[in-house]
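Quick check before the chapter quiz. The format below is the same one you will see on the exam, so make sure you can read both the input and the output lines.
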Amino acid sequence: MQPLVDTPSPAIRVSSVRAPLLISAAAFLWGVIAAVYYSRLGLTLAHYDARAHLVVSRRIFDSLTPGWQQVGAVWLPLPHVINALPVQIDALYRTGAFAVAVSILSMALAVWAIATLIERATGSIVGGAVAAALLMLNPDVLYLQSTPMSEPLLFGTTFLAVALIGMWAASCPPPRSSSLNRFGGTAPPRLTRGAGWACIAAVLTRYEAWPIVAAAIVLAFAVLLHRGWKAGAAFRAVRGLALWPLWALAAFLVNSKVSVGSWFVSSGFFTADNPALGDPWLAWTQVWDGLVRLTGPVLPWAAVISAAAIAVTFLRRANTETGRPSPSIILPLALAACAALPLYAYFKGHPVRVRYDVPLVAAAAALTGTAIALLPRRLQAPIGIAIVAIAAWQAPPFQTDAAVVVESQREAPNFAGRRAVTAYLEAHWDGQPIMMSMGSLGHYMHDLSLSGFRIRDFLHEGNGEIWKYAVQQPHPVVEWIAIEERAEGGDALFWQATHDPKFLRGYARVAEGGGVALYRRLR
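Here is the expected output.
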């Protein structure tokens, strides 16, 4: 007897459309309220990366050497491509308003995706609502979705990719022969394209998406086996799906090679001072501790128990006549793969950043909501409400001393200290390019936009051969040099000045503050 395909009744299909949309609309309105709240506190652009992301988007057109090479190679390109045109408008560049709108919409998309996946797999609306509440009530998630940071877009694209991969796997009946269509399976081509494009968007947003998408495709293979596919046919089907993100990653690597001369930039942007360097257990402890700091102790353990319950349900329960639960219930487990990135970073000595655990908050919310949907219906609402209430009590929304909110303001003293440098430039700048490392001082370039400076007024790493020549012999090229001397042990120019006594020959130190030293060429 062939396993049944997940084909809900018309009434269920209507519910599966309306309920997630209503939950998503509520999340959108809540997100707008949060964005206004943090804007009034002056925290929208508090994190230096929030400003640096806007700078990278702006420099695609506003640069000494404009063009596609300015997309960059350290950060993934999609957030900057989306914002590239809007940030050419000074008001949107200086406030980050359009990028914040993208963040809010991304979170609404993430809520819709997880609610849809849970509802289609289990028939439960409560589970999706619980997942959305756990996600959107967390103060650190709320804060990030109120900024131009790239995490919200990560949540939107990865949740969508996982949901569409789940739908794709659930829509594929076992093939009658070993031949598959050119889209990698017997699913409708439109659904396959949707899952493929969502995977591409995810892997071009943040590196956490790479293990998530890979895990989702592996779990889709397991779903096909569960539904009666032969191993060879199932492998060929998921291989066809996997080609979508693989081609996107290949294009990114080629762009990196052309832009900066390296296939993949994995070092040089942090000082390896983490005691977890080379110690996987300590690195994992730091990841777990960071998650507990963000949520309190209940949600992480609820997520662990939920993951076990989801796995057991997938392994032990066959589809009923109504197709519930669908084998695609296993797909939310893929979201937990985001832990691989901070774990690897800390193992390599990267300083601890609690922000790196925020994707795990989203994964924990999705897993817990999915497990709630597996409970008997009479227990779903009371247990779900209890978990949401405890989570909101341990990490209240709009908490001004939430971990990521506090971490985002660690640059504030430097912002004040650099006013001396800004004042000198305002009084004496003669229109000549200022040599400055965007990798270390991109956020300061954004600060200087308030004084009328454009990205084309700076010589930075994105200017290719001009930058490489100037690093060796700046005197014939630039009038001004700004050097970050403190953060992460100093920037590339600080290293060059320290190791090459001729680098600053012919320059005078004219201003300093907030860790930045400004030099001007002697006449």
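If your answer matched, good. Residues 10-40 form the longest helix (31 residues).
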